[in-house]
Write the structure tokens for this entry.
Amino acid sequence: MDPFAHTFAGAALAASGLGRKTPLATAALLMGANAPDVDVVAYFGDPFQSLELRRGLTHGVLALAILPFAVTGLVLLWDRVVRRKRRPDSEPARAGPLLGLAALAVLTHPLLDWLNNYGIRWLMPFDTRWFYGDAVFIIDPWIWLGLGGVAFLAYSRSRAAIAAWCAFWAPTSLLMSVTAVPVLARALWFAGIAALFAVRFSRRTASELGSAFERAARAALGVAAVYVSTLVLVDFAERSAVRAELATRGIGPVERVMVAPVPANPFTSEVLVETSETYHAGTWRWLAEPRLELDPETIPKHMADRIADAAAQTLEARRYLTWARFPYAVIEPDADGYVVRLLDARYRAAGRLYGPAVRLDRNLRPLPTE
């Protein structure tokens, strides 16, 4: 998921009452919820190396055991070196509760990341397999509105905080306005934003609001858990229904099926079907007939072609293919030999996730990239 969703998960946990367990509990929850994304430093290197490294070591089981101790250590260091020197009479942060809260927050991160079709490698460093939930779009406005909404209510006590929140709600609302989402989804979003601001600027006392916000945070976390669990179950049902429809149409044998979510619309999904030689892309709609609509053109894989195989042996290609879930190759002859573009059918329309263009001579030896 996006960094906002992870941050809101930590903030909602803190707002639910966990932030009162010990001094700096909220800091531990926010840091823990984002800690596995320390691997974003990979983006400063080679783009295909970053795909190879992301959602790997820092999202795997070993990191889930280590990161809570790292977060707790940093928080305790801040408490000792900065906070308690500024306020010597303040209550010290307690290591035990901080460690438990950090562990809880760290665990939320790979759980959220697993939900989308980008996937994570749960078992790193012991196993490099990817796992995909295919249930929630990587940017989900309902998680923003639910968990972000209770965080907004709980942590917008000053004018500066309100201004910061407005700097978030304004562009996200613009995004909902211009993105191709259902009209009902857009209406629900703006109604939710209006309700949040109405509650925030109500005339109730701070003590009354504080108690209400904790209950609201617990409710939001519960609703979020039910929401994502339902989408996971729906994805299982969709894949089963897609396979049955493919069998009816005589398409197969089918090797893999992905039914992936689209923004803000749980009734429509993108479909990708893998057979031995091709991919079939299409759309699944629960509220339409026929529910499964496949594109007329298939996507040839070409990965078994000797030219594509030669390209796949280069360093950039190996890095990209470590990440690619549904790889295919586009082979074009040129004056020196061949240009092989490697892609992933999940993101065939997303140019930023294109794979390397490998140049080969006529003897299938790599040439320098121009």
